[in-house]
Amino acid sequence: MAKYTILTPAGASFTTAGGGYEYEMEALEGLDAEIVECPATEEGFIAAAPTADAVYAKGMKFTAAMINALTKCRHIALGTVGVDYVDVAAATAKGIPVTNCPDTFIEEVADHAMMLLLATHRRCIEQDRMVREGRWAEGRPQLLKIPRLMGQTLGFIGFGRVARATARRAKAFGLHMKAYDPYVEELTLSALGVEPATLSEVLSTSDFVSMHLPDTPETRGFLKERHFRQMKPNAIFITTGRGPTVNEAALIKALEEKWIAGAGLDVFEVEPTRPDNPLHRMPHVILSPHNASASSRFDPARKRRVGQELALTLQGKWPMSCVNPTVLEKSGLRRWQPYAMERGPNS
């Protein structure tokens, strides 16, 4: 029996029951640790919880009851940016560090955000359909009504890692940029050519509004009907953040009643989207299935990061990306490098 047991639900997302942990085990080699699968149910996890020295959280909700059943766990590791499927408050109360992968997929998501902006602005999907349906002559007249991209304003709600990477891309297209984020220093924005602004200023003056807030109790349902009413009639709404931060009914109403001109959406309030979702039928809305982070390096990169974080805590060291850092001072783990974080999993 191994010295350290890392408990994880079987058959969870991005892996299959009974194996597939080679990437995670690279950093754990030599530590006498093993990843042990348990049933992917609350009851199954709770039954196995006392054996866990650490938890690899994936594929299901991790409730307070599950976390409270852990008796010797020193770490809950996530292979994602978002942490909304784990009760972080319960882990904090239990004194267990929770880690995520906040910087592993940033470039891919920023690429996707910029793709949605460009595709919605230039009516990419609609233009494609015109060609396929023999409506060739309609293409140019549509675009003759659209202003050039250069000189328009891109507003960010939340200015974490993905927003910053998107800003670097948008600068090359000549966009004026502003951002609302009360947790980010003004100098961080100005260094990227982004103007600090209030939420109202971002909404009322931007031609593109890009949503980047994490899903937390404070941000859930953050954008409501009154916010969409503040936006310009020509504005396009982009989100690659978290679906629950936007009241989707309000967004649908804004599009149907033409308070805004269009949207590019990678995330939704309910996923997968239901077949009767009105967004499916809207011509000037581009949808993608919450896959902005995906690329050929996605699985190897995030799995290796999970293994690296687990290896650190099992050796008694601080992890790299703790979302509840207050527990580290009381955890007995050793600080092994300068530790800094911005504000958690801001995407």
From TrEMBL:
SUPFAM superfamilies linked: Formate/glycerate dehydrogenase catalytic domain-like, NAD(P)-binding Rossmann-fold domains
Any GO molecular function: NAD binding
GO cellular component annotations of the record: cytosol
EC number(s) from the headed UniProt entry: 1.1.1.95
Keyword tags: NAD, Oxidoreductase
Domain called D-isomer specific 2-hydroxyacid dehydrogenase NAD-binding: residue spans: 114-292
CDD domains the UniProt entry points to: CtBP_dh
InterPro entries on file: CtBP, D-isomer_2-hydroxyacid_DH, D-isomer_DH_NAD-bd, NAD(P)-bd_dom_sf
Family, per entry: Belongs to the D-isomer specific 2-hydroxyacid dehydrogenase family.
Name this polypeptide is given: D-3-phosphoglycerate dehydrogenase
Taxonomic source organism: Neoroseomonas alkaliterrae
